[in-house]
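Hello, quick one for you while I still have it in my head. My current little project is about how a certain protein chain folds up. You're getting the sequence in one-letter code plus the fold written as tokens. Would you mind checking whether the tokens look sensible for this chain? Here's the protein in full, and shout if anything looks odd to you:
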Amino acid sequence: MPCDQITVFKASFDNIKDLGRLGDAAKALGWHVSLQGEFLTITRDGVTFQLRKLGNGVVGDATGLRLTQQQKAELQSELVKGYAKETVKVAAKECGWKVKESALNSRKLVLERR
């Protein structure tokens, strides 16, 4: 990715390519993470997501407490947002940009050229 252009990236479970980065995002969001090969298990508050790489994306399911489909979707959304944030941080670091976060779990990042 060129360092002087804005690139739009829309993250979804369908296009997550890096389980390690998803694990980093989950850790930042307070999940316990276990990555073994092509399998990622993340756990928090009695909820476990078991994920694996499939094709160009990631597939997985949540187990644990009695989760409704809406609750599963909300947890997936939280993870995808965290993954997008980690992706921005990695790209900024590769370009030598400084990343500032307004708060620990904020969705807002400020990038500055060094």
